[in-house]
Amino acid sequence: MDSARGHDDIRHDDDPAAGGVGEAEIAVGLDERRMHVRAYNHWVSLLGDRPFPAIADLDPASIADFGPNSVLLDFSAGLDNPAIQFLGRALRDECGMADQDIAHIADVPARSLLSRLTDHYLQIIANRAPIGFEAEFVGTRGTPTMYRGILMPFSSDAATIDYIYGVINWKELASAGQQAALAAELSAARAPQRADAAVAWADGPGAGAPAGTGLAPDHGAADTLDDRLAAARASAAAARAADTRSHAALYRALGRAHDFALAAHAAPDRLAALLADAGIVAQARSPLTAVAKLVFGADHDKTRLTEIATVLAHARRHDVPDGGLPRVLEATPGGIKGIVADERAARRPVRPRADPAPLDRRATVATLSLDTGIAAGEAVVLLGRAGPDGTVEVVGAVADARLAGALLKRIG
User: Fold this and answer.
1) In the chain, count of helices (H) and strands (E)?
2) Which of these, 168, 233, 315, 210, lies nearest to 7 by C-alpha position?
């Protein structure tokens, strides 16, 4: 199943099932992750002060990095069956149509990787923001395929989204039988001096991972603070566009914002430069609000930014490790709202209550004659009811020091 990444309102924390929380995340290799970020950075570089980059500024054929893995959809003639203005060589080969023209999205072969775009491109039209997605499916060759992609809006008039540029990267996996056979061969070859090793593609999820994990870390060692900011912004922008699976997208975006905050804490000078470039002023009393603005946008709803900063502060206070915040959010009752409530309670000053004055030092409020049979000076608890004209009708009396002490605390 595809997992769309977009940024829904942070208040959408009421239905965990709606966000896909608890699903197994697809581990896509470091190269795929970097290509996703580089494509988003290119889109941002063309944005300028416009709501969408101009289509005239995009030349997919000249992009050696990810151009072969990209497709340009033209919606100028309608939304139902967009034209394909450009299709990169790698995607064309994956479709099995290397020497054939594909004019419209309807011409794309079923079960090809390119056909997966139809699940997402209408979300961009509706939400006017980039969308990232990642999933696994069985392709035309019958092999499991993991893929990651991003769709980005472009415009011919700076107002209407009439083009969408998509970049997709993928890896084909061995079948279950092939993996079992390979594991048996490796076990036999390495016995008796076996060392745990990642069963992964040469440049995929296992590349650079600790031995035996089979997964790549979410951030490479070469990641710069700018790389992490780009990844966090991509997730945040994508999460804004998510109509469905909002929890998965939002938790991923918050997780990457926390990862960026961790890196920023270790690189204060570069963080200061990024904030200055964005025109954001950090406040000493709430430094993580500036981080929230940097990732989610300074124009984001102020209440939501405050809640985001509160979640990031909670993660910092509890030393949540790099990549660990989404799991914390999933495990916390109430998710984001639960964490915000806990963090605000932790910040609330505790005012020590003064011990109540003893009974013999209390001022007399009223005196009445009533034979209770209790010695003078002892505590007497009277039970009464309000009578007419401000009177009190006593219906009983009891000598109970513990009850009297509790009432003294209540009185203050």
Assistant:
1) 12, 8
2) 233
Q: Which residues of the chain have pLDDT under 70?
A: 1-33, 98-99, 118-119, 138-143, 173-223, 238-246, 350-356, 359-362, 364-365, 412
Which pLDDT score is estimated for 186? 53
Please check whether residue 241 is in contact with residue 127, taking contact to mean a CB–CB distance below 8 angstroms: yes
The encoded tokens of residue 120 equal: 């997402």
293-302 contact pairs (CB < 8 A, 24+): 294/229, 294/260, 295/229, 295/232, 295/233, 295/236, 295/253, 295/256, 295/257, 295/260, 296/7, 296/236, 296/253, 296/257, 297/236, 301/9
Put residue 30 in one of left, alpha, beta given phi > 0 → left and psi -120 to 50 → alpha: alpha
From the list 174, 171, 173, the residue with the least C-alpha distance to 184 is: 174
> What's the pLDDT at 167?
92
CA distance 66 to 89: 10
**With 0-12 CB in 10 A as exposed, 13-18 as middle and 19+ as buried, what is 160?**
middle
Helix, strand, coil percentages, rounded to 5, for the chain: 45, 15, 40
The per-residue pLDDT for 325 is: 92
Q: Which pLDDT score is estimated for 298?
A: 83
Which residue type, as a one-letter code, is found at position 179?
Q
Burial (0-12, 13-18, 19+ Cβ within 10 Å), 66:
buried
Residue pair 142/199 in contact by the 8 Å Cβ criterion: no
What is the Cα gyration radius of the chain?
31
